[in-house]
Structure to design on (234 residues):
């Protein structure tokens, strides 16, 4: 579990294909590697990866084929900059929002607008994720917890915008993006659960595994009200 508050910007040292559709990634990360142990989780530009080896200022993680298929991590090359965050500890301040490191898909940078003291980035939004992204809602962009500043649609294509302060631009990879670059996208976990419940037609508060537990109809309620209540001896 992560919060989307980036701790450091690392650099890809090695990218090795494993021959089974996956890859092994080695990242220069002085802070993240400083207390990492085998099996620890580190978010790499929004993708939760497991440490399989480490040194004083680097760590290595395996990347599954499924991860490569749904994320932009396959675009990384030696020298690429990545956003890094170690897993949150119980009792940490939740400076961002709940981020799992489970990428929903990718988005493409469409437009950059520089204003007096901040920068607005507009990204494409896949159709299947559009309903999960709302104005003023939380979103994970390349592992960074951000607030959606606008959503819209141009023709048949959806988009969303985020507004970034200089601090975010300087300490993350978002300040280095160019038009057409792909980033990893993670929507809000609460929105995903609500969407799934709506798809299944499960009323709020009713477990999906209990098909008979459905809200009582108005007729049933009226019938129950009309039935005399047996007297109880005291």
């Amino acid at each position: 579990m992560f919060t989307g508050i980036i701790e450091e910007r690392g650099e890809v040292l090695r990218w090795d294909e494993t021959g089974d559709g996956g890859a092994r990634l080695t990242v220069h990360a002085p802070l993240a590697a400083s207390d990492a142990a085998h099996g620890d989780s580190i978010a790499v530009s929004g993708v939760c990866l497991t440490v399989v080896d480490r040194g004083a200022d680097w760590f290595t993680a395996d990347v599954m084929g499924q991860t490569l298929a749904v994320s932009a991590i396959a675009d990384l090359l030696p020298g690429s900059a990545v956003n890094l965050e170690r897993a949150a500890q119980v009792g940490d301040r939740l400076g961002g929002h709940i981020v799992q490191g489970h990428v929903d898909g990718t988005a493409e940078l469409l437009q950059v607008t520089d204003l007096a003291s901040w920068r607005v980035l507009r990204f494409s939004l896949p159709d299947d994720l559009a309903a999960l992204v709302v104005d003023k809602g939380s979103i994970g962009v390349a592992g960074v917890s951000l607030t959606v500043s606008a959503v819209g649609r141009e023709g048949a294509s959806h988009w969303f915008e985020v507004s970034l302060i200089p601090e975010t631009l300087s300490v993350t990879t978002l300040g280095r993006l160019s038009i057409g670059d792909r980033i990893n996208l993670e929507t809000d976990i609460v929105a995903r659960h609500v969407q799934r419940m709506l798809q299944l037609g499960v009323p709020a508060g009713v477990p999906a595994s209990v098909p008979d537990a459905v809200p009582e109809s108005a007729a049933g309620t009226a019938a129950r009200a009309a039935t005399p209540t047996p007297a109880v001896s005291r």
Notes: The two ends are 55 Å apart (CA to CA). Residues 217-227, 229-234 have pLDDT under 50 and may be disordered. The longest strand covers residues 144-154. The chain is about 15% helix and 35% strand.
